[in-house]
Design brief:
Layout: E1 9-17, E2 25-34, E3 37-42, E4 51-54, E5 58-62, E6 64-69, H1 85-92, H2 102-118, E7 121-128, H3 134-147, E8 150-156, H4 164-184, E9 190-195, H5 199-217, E10 221-225, H6 230-236, E11 244-248, H7 254-262, E12 266-269, H8 271-276, H9 282-290, E13 293-296, H10 308-329, H11 346-360, E14 378-382, H12 393-399, E15 406-411, E16 414-418, E17 421-422, H13 427-442
Parallel strand pairs: 1-4, 1-5, 6-7, 7-8, 8-9, 9-10, 10-11, 12-13
Antiparallel strand pairs: 1-2, 2-3, 5-14, 14-15, 15-16, 16-17
The structure holds zinc ion.
């Protein structure tokens, strides 16, 4: 595991977007890192013994957090391109998981982790719904420890559909065993979570068993909320709480959103996958207004790029388009601002992938902000050679920045990318791992 330097690290003279309500933005500011934590944020910090990263001309933001991605699909990039709805996905992509061996899980997860770090994604919730044998989970975890990304490894309870009930005992036993292993491992970066079986496949009784087991271990939990009514069903079964993050929830009613908000919960949206699949996108705006904390994910690397910056831009456009359509259809046209409308600004998108997503992965107190005491996950974005936008610098991140602007990536105080190049990982390692998986998985396709 890459280690933070024993010497302090000073990020000097950048435009700092702390995403911390008390600290706000610093037009020219410094961030001091000691070991794995941020120790100070402010103008002209005094740290004579520190290694210095010159951040002049750069935006300094918290590391990007993806709250829902199936990393095992990384080598299947393109297999899902242009799919038309769930029927295509169920026919052409999802069945490929049964061809993955444990070795493939290692390679796929390694490839995804390297690429995500390169693109500024310092933390991910890996929704690993491809635990076909215990070895699959062990090897995916091993890859996470090797890449050194911050990970909530959401152990997938949804195995083979024909034997969900019969398989549940060994799966839960492995979850307990992995929880011990992860807790005792030298790296604090990987934590265990639980990706619940989908209630429409497993039934509420099995899902209730999983939630009970997850709560006994204090694991953050998440599940695909696809058919309508599942949030209410969890509430009525007295199972809904803020430690469960539904994903998608496109058909959730306003009452259900109020239930999620009442327990301080969030929802993970995967806008490119949802939008391209024809799902209702009014949900993100409705959730935002209801007080639910939205976060964003790539979801399916088989059809969506591992690029959280792109998800922010798409989400903003989708939310604005949806809101503008309502205005037009209700006769408020041409568009004019009035109280409460429009209800999101570009900066909200950056909140979705930092402070909100930190809550989604169970680290809301210590991650997603650049503030003293927070975990030192930081990204520096170039604004050159063409310069910073006018107005809110957060809008520059959301609407102008691309992965080509990712100059520096710091995870847990360790510099993982500097001056546009990964420091201790090699992109060719990822391409080789992808090639190996394709040779093995697709050979008989
Ligand atoms: Zn998903």
């Amino acid at each position: 595991m890459p280690q933070a330097s024993h010497r302090p690290l000073l990020i000097k003279g950048g435009l700092v977007l702390t995403m911390d309500p008390a600290l706000g933005d610093l037009d020219t500011g410094d961030v001091l890192i000691e070991q794995d934590r941020i120790s100070a944020v402010g103008p002209r910090l005094d740290a004579t013994d520190a290694d210095v990263i010159d951040a002049s001309g750069m935006l300094v933001i918290p590391g990007l957090i993806d709250s829902h991605t199936h990393m095992w699909q990384c080598p299947l990039k393109g297999a899902g391109a242009g799919l038309w709805g769930m029927a295509d996905y169920s026919k052409h992509v999802f069945p490929l998981r049964e061809r993955f061996t444990a070795v493939d899980m290692y390679d796929a997860t390694l490839a995804a982790g390297i690429e995500m770090l390169d693109k500024g994604i310092t933390t991910v919730l890996d929704f690993c719904h491809n635990v076909m044998t215990p070895g699959h989970a062990e090897q995916a975890l091993r890859a996470h420890w090797d890449t050194g990304q911050r990970v909530l490894f959401a152990y997938g309870m949804l195995g083979r559909f024909a034997s969900l009930e019969a398989d549940q005992p060994w799966r839960l036993e492995q979850v307990r065993s992995l929880h011990r292993q992860v807790s005792e491992h030298a790296s604090p970066l990987v934590r265990l979570g639980l990706a619940l079986s989908s209630p429409e496949y497993a039934g509420m009784k099995l899902v209730a068993n999983e939630i009970e087991a997850g709560r006994a271990l204090g694991l953050p939990m998440t599940f695909h909320q696809n058919p309508p009514g599942q949030i209410r069903a969890l509430h009525e079964a007295k199972l809904l709480d803020g430690d469960i993050v539904p994903v998608h929830a496109n058909l959730a009613t306003d009452d259900e959103l109020a239930l999620v908000a009442a327990c301080g919960g969030g929802i993970s949206f995967t806008p490119e996958g949802e939008f391209g699949g024809g799902r209702s996108m009014s949900i993100i705006g409705r959730a935002h207004r209801a007080g639910v904390t939205p976060s964003l994910g790539v979801d399916v690397p088989s059809r969506v790029a591992l690029d959280v910056l792109a998800q922010m831009r798409l989400t903003f456009s989708v939310m604005r388009a949806e809101e503008a359509t309502v205005e037009r259809q209700t006769g408020r046209w041409p568009l004019e601002r009035h109280p409460g409308t429009p209800h999101v600004e570009p900066r909200h998108m950056l909140e979705y992938v930092t402070v909100n997503a930190a809550r989604a992965v169970g680290l809301g107190d210590t991650l997603g902000r650049l503030a003293p005491g927070c975990l030192a996950d930081v990204v520096l974005l170039h604004t050159g050679p063409y310069g910073l936008s006018l107005g809110d610098p957060a809008a520059h991140v959301v609407l102008q920045s691309t992965v080509a602007d990712v100059d520096t990536v710091i995870v847990n105080g360790a510099v993982r990318k500097r001056a546009g190049r990964l420091t201790d990982l090699d992109p060719t390692t990822a391409t080789a791992a992808t090639r190996r998986v394709r040779e093995r998985v697709m050979a008989t396709h």
